Fold these 4 entries.
Entry 1:
Amino acid sequence: MSLVRFLIVLGLGTVLSWSAWVLVVALLDPQTGGVIALMLFYSSLFLALLGTLTLAGFFLRYWLEKETLIFQQVSIALRQATLLSGGATIALMLQSQRLLNIWVFLSLAIVLFVIEGFFLAGQSERHHQTSQSSSH
């Protein structure tokens, strides 16, 4: 799949996700809709945030990091958008149950930073190994 086609599909999916989220907010009452209404709310919000943050992250990386491969930029943007969208969705779920406070939020943020750190460390090590093998 070409980059343009991927971005178009991602953009359309993001618009559909935001539309679904608006419909869920407008038409479903969490008090009477029960678990299904909450699942639809959180899943549509997660997907909408995922698409939006992936597109924003990609275009920001494309603009700022001209030397990085385009599909690597997409991969990084998607990974970071997944972490941020998941973190935001989890924080909202905890808040809806009145379980979110500053310490829980900071713990969640630290976990997300550590996960991203593992990915960055792996990328750095792969880059280091690649540069060493190409210099020999």
Entry 2:
Amino acid sequence: MPVAPADRVRQGVVVASVVATIVGNGLANALPFFGRTTADVSAAYPTAFTPAGYVFAIWIVIYLALLTFAGWQARPARADDPRLRAAGPWIVASGAVNVGWLLAWHADRILLSTVLLAALVVVLIRIDEHLRGGPAHATPQRERAFAAFARTPFRIYLGWASVATAANVAVAGVALGWDGAPLAPETWAILVVAVATLIALARLATRADVPFALVAIWAFVGIAVRAGIPGPLPFAAFVAVALLAGATIGRVVRPAGGRA
């Protein structure tokens, strides 16, 4: 069946959006934007919730996954998938918001960057919702490929954007000169870890979202490493890791019962 012109345009725009997002992130640090790298801005606003530097290497995974998705969805055989049609505009929007966050972050507009990162989470949730389900005639093999190449990249992305939003909120507090009173910064970090753990557990229970949980585990280990062991925050982070690891293994071993 020939590909409809509108579908071909949509596929091309999605590819261009993903490439532009990755190029924009590369230039942000290579130039860098406004004379500072992404890490420079982060270092200017230290928080207890900020993970160790190596954790941010997850962006490499996210961008490789998005590039793989972009090429996969551009195949003629995927042109008429209604899920990709519905998600297309949101995928393009996610790229625009991502670059907008970069500009705000590098320009030291921390409050604006926090709003934009929260908006990115909303957009990624919409993408995930559009990519759920599937046509009744789809074969199991086709759906496994769809889950691997379409849903998994955006679930990894959503997991990290959710963690990053919490970190951005903490940075905004520092930028405004708030020291966390009446609670200590470490106490706030523990509370955020607890809330993030509950969200990840809920995603596992209702969406079987293993990638989201794995990203949270990755971030929590990084928070513990940066905070230094022993201590209340590393202890809380490792408790969260244990809970999420157990729930993730349970989901993988017994996948039935949750909504995908």
Entry 3:
Amino acid sequence: MSGHSKWATTKHRKGAQDKARAKLFAKLIRQVEVAAREGGGDMNANATLRTMYTKARDASVPIDTIDRAIKRGTGELEGVRYEAVAYEGYAPGGVALIVECLTDNRNRTGADIRSIFSRNGGSMAEPGAVSWQFGRKGVVMLPKSVGEDELMTVALDAGAEDLADEGDEWMLTASAHDLQGLRHALEQASISIDQADVEMVPASRVPVDDESTAKKVLKLIDLLEEHDDVQNVWSNFDIPDEILEKVEV
């Protein structure tokens, strides 16, 4: 299995349990607001907003809080105007990183992200230098209690492109556009879902077999994720399970 997928899934669950709820909510609300501003407040016509709404509800963000964020995005309510910006760079070991942010001050955020990279053994890259290695995909993680044959029957009819065995879980991938339809089909078939989101999936991964390098890579990603303006950090590392277990202790 990919060490990256195992780590990402662990981070998702740990984050949902351990992060301060206010900070988690703030990031999700910001995503909803920007989606509404860029594509309108009608979830039937705005697939990105529909995805962000579902993500916020999965994290137990109150409906009225989400509704206010949508209204700020569409201009019905006043609020800070956020813009989406992405930074690209490399972690130790040549691991590629994409850092997606929502900010009300591009200069401040850019300086902060550059500082985190430079202070932790990484380096910023020019726009496009890293992103070509990734594709935006819908990713659904499911428990292994779901049978492979049953899963394939439902998933393929709903637009799934690939099914991967990730050890403790199945990972389904589809086009970002098909994610909501795939999730709906799985739910209609009473198939439980651990996580569903749009992610930047790398075309290939960089093996990180050295424990010291693995620690540096994960530390850099952790520090980036802690920044208030950072929404997602995508990477292409592949750390073996035995090394992951050591560096996570």
Entry 4:
Amino acid sequence: MTGSGARSAVEWLVSVAPDPDACRWEWERNPHGVALLPAGRRWDVLILPGELGHPTLDVLTCCVDHPGPVLADFGDSRLGFFVPPGTVAHWLGTGVRGAGCGTWIVVPYPGRATGGVHWLVPPDGSGTLTDPALLELAMHEAAAGLAREPQGGEQ
């Protein structure tokens, strides 16, 4: 991510913070390079288990040039897809967690390596989010692909 791209991504992210300057300060001084930001203002986050999240991201990137931001936790065991605000309140899905209005998420500084939570698809600063209907279709396609794979060494 270029310097100006990272700056616009930072500005987009901190725009939801109660105190944007404090958020920037936290990113600079936190040894993990992360800050807590409220969900539900400019975006919600749908959190998928890594086993489904990674193939879903693969399908999604085949469908659109620029999906919305995607976070991964330490070890990539969970992926968080940034979707429009209000999505979580209406989402029904087994095994999918959501962060919406009234919740906070750990967000790493865009364009900077961290040891834990990290961006798989960093925000571009334009406000691009993943369309929930497209995400759902990508999840179904990914789940179908997983169901076709042999389990536990079966042939």
